Structure formats: structure tokens, C-alpha cells
Amino acid sequence: MKFFFMAWSYLKYKLKAKTKHAVHSPFVFDFITKVMEPHTFKEDYATIEKQVQVLQRNMNSIETVDFGATTANTGYARRLRRVSSIAKKAGIPRKQGRFLYRLIEYYQPEKMLEIGSSVGISTMYQAKANPAARLISIEGCASTAAYAQESVSAVNADNVKVLIGQFEHVLPIALLELEQLDYAFIDGNHNYSSTLAYFELLKQKARNGAVFVFHDIHWSPGMERAWEVIKSSEEVTITIDLFFMGLVFLKKELTPQHFILRF
Ligand SMILES: C[S@@+](CC[C@H](N)C(=O)[O-])C[C@H]1O[C@@H](n2cnc3c(N)ncnc32)[C@H](O)[C@@H]1O
């Protein structure tokens, strides 16, 4: 069912997605040419992707907690999973990781937040892109978070703090600690109400010019509805739908406009 939903959504996206030749906004044209298009190889990619390989080859089994599923007796569902399998299934693909790297490298956000570290694949790309920035990355499953911590140490990303706890509980703490926000990557608990609840909290701390990246905006009908609500929010000016993720710019001086771009 999910497969058919996503396939249908992808088809609609493909039919609507534009290239830079159909974009008249100078801000978005700049985004396409400076963030989306460059494909120069970077030393950091090699460092990060070596650690990704280490994770993808790690056959250790760890007990993970799934905050999206509960059981009658034990609270949240727990299951044994191989680190290799988590890295391959939950981790962001290389193309998207490199895109996040370029996004951060170009806009240079200083106060960054990640909701959903897993084993730290996206965390590494984001942290290495701007070593002068501070990144707090939140993960609920402690045994998974231990690998995120190990990954950021392996690539010498010392600007990251991995915060363990349920998003609902620790997000306000992370925001208090960061004081303000220039960038957020929301990659966990993908459902309508949680996504909008996180967005409400993030908005309150956003500095002008902040960019939020929502992963899996076409994952389910609920996520697509959440994306529409986010797009129509008063503080949001430019939005960019890249199918696997949606970007939201909170930059007052821009005229509100919504784009669907070929990724
Ligand atoms: C898709 S994975 C993140 C992948 C990671 N950003 C990457 O690309 O490498 C989502 C993570 O969010 C965590 N998670 C989901 N719901 C949560 C919640 N309510 N509180 C805390 N963690 C949660 C899961 O344990 C999982 O590790």
C-alpha cells in the first residue's frame, strides 16, 4: 500500500518538477546553481563515507527501541537489529547526505539541530559542512545513539552533541540550549501531528534566514498534509519540494513562493 502511495506521489512529482530554466526567483536560481548543481568531490566526503562503510559492515546486533510502536506489556517495541541493517535502511543515501553538506556549506548556519540521528550518517555530513557551527542531534534509542556518537568522533566532528531522549521530551531542552536556530533537519517520527508539533517549536526559535529540511514529506498522506500546512504557515516564505525532502526558508524579505524542483 505504502509502495503504491509513494509511487503515485513520485509520478506526480516528476510531472511537476522544474529545472532552473523555469525558475524566475533569483534566490531559488542561486540555490540551484550553488547548492544543487555542484558535484565537485570533497575530502570530507571521503572521510564521512569511509565511516558509513564501517557502519554498513558492522554485524553487531543491538537492542533498539521503536518509538512509533508500542506493545501491551513492555511499552515501546524493542527488537534486535544489526548495525549494518540500520545504517543501510535508516541512514540517508549518499546523494542526499552530500546535498545537505553543500546546503550548510553555502548558507553557513551557526545553530543547527537534527531530529533523528540514528547511527549518525546525516549527522556527519551536516557537522563537517560547517565546523564553526554547533549541532545538537537528538536520538531516542540509546544503543543506536552510541553509534552516532562513535561516528562523529571517528570523523573528528567535535561540534556535535548527541542528545539521547524522546523528541517530545528533549526537543525543548535542545532548543533552550541552542537559544536560537538557523537550521533544522527533521528526520524521525514521520507523522502529521508530530511533524507539525516539532515545526511549531522550531519556528519559535528561528532566526530570520533559517532553513528547515523535512525528510520524507511524501512518505504518507499524513506527511503530505503536514507539508501543506507547513507551506501555508505565515513565517514561511520560500519552500522547495525535492520529493525525498522539503526545504523551508524563513526569510522575511522574500516573497512567498513554492517550488517543486528536480533533484
Ligand atoms: C530515519 S532515522 C534517522 C536517520 C538519520 N537522520 C540518518 O540519515 O542517518 C529516525 C530516527 O529517529 C528515532 N526516533 C523516531 N521517533 C522518535 C521519537 N519520538 N523520539 C526519539 N527518537 C525517535 C528513531 O529511533 C530513528 O533512529
Top CATH class: Alpha Beta
Q: Which class of secondary structure composition applies to the elements?
A: alpha/beta
**CATH topology heading:** Rossmann fold
Number of domains: 1
How far is the first residue's CA from the last residue's CA? 25 Å
> Shape from CA axes?
globular
What's the topology here?
Blueprint: H1 2-16, H2 26-36, H3 43-56, E1 61-71, E2 75-82, H4 83-89, H5 94-107, E3 111-115, H6 121-129, E4 134-139, H7 142-154, E5 160-164, H8 167-178, E6 181-186, H9 192-205, E7 206-215, H10 221-231, E8 238-241, E9 245-250, E10 257-260
Parallel strand pairs: 3-4, 3-6, 4-5, 6-7, 8-10
Antiparallel strand pairs: 1-2, 7-9, 8-9
The site of S-adenosylmethionine has 19 residues, from strand 1 and helix 6.
What does this structure look like?
The longest helix has 15 residues. Strand 3, helix 6 and strand 4 form a beta-alpha-beta unit. The strands form 2 sheets. An 8-stranded mixed beta sheet has the order 5-4-3-6-7-9-8-10, with helices on both faces. A two-stranded antiparallel sheet has the order 1-2. The chain has one domain: Rossmann fold (3-Layer(aba) Sandwich), CATH 3.40.50.150. It has 263 residues and is α/β, with parallel strands linked by helices. Helix content is 46%, strand content 25%. The protein is globular, with a radius of gyration of 18 Å. The site of S-adenosylmethionine has 19 residues, from strand 1 and helix 6. S-adenosylmethionine binds next to strand 1 and helix 6.
